[in-house]
Amino acid sequence: MSVEDKVYTGSGGKVYFDGEELFYVQKSELKVTPKRENFDLVGELDEYSKLVGLSGKGSVEVIKTNAFVYRRFVEEMKKGKDPTFTYIGEVTNAATNETQTAIANECKIDGDLDIMSFEPKKIMNDAISFTFPPTKMEFEE
Q: Short name of one Pfam family for this protein (predicted)?
């Protein structure tokens, strides 16, 4: 197998939101960031760091086709609830037919919900940013 065949491309990606596939995805990211605390020891020049926490962030950008996600979120927030959802991202390598899947559970909206904005002769896009607890992540091969 050539090196090129081992490389994944975004063209083989899909995103599922609470089990429903999102169509017209333009971009998607899912990241885990370690939180560290630095410390020094007397008599040593080295600086040390210890893992003290994790944070998870993600985003999905799509061409707008409907507002089903926002409608649900706004209705729940109007009732004082903090809505959660499950994000499933998968990417398939067309040359090898291998798929990598990451599942982020208990996702919460982080940032604005762009309910409506438009310009003449422009395609409408949506972007949803969210946070999630990395300890609730799952991976499938």
A: DUF2001
CA–CA–CA angle 2, 95, 105 (5° rounding): 120
Asked if 79 contacts 107 with a C-beta cutoff of 8 angstroms, the reply is: no
Which residue has tokens 């020049």? 45
The answer to whether residue 40 sits within a structural domain is: no
Output the CA angle 50-30-80, nearest 5 degrees: 95
| CA separation for the pair 27, 25 (Å, rounded) | 6
Q: Which domain holds residue 107?
A: 3-34+51-140
- The 10s digit of each residue's pLDDT in 79-137 is 999 999 999 999 999 889 999 999 999 999 998 888 888 899 998 888 899 999 999 99
User: What whole-number distance in Å separates Cα of residue 21 and Cα of residue 14?
Assistant: 7
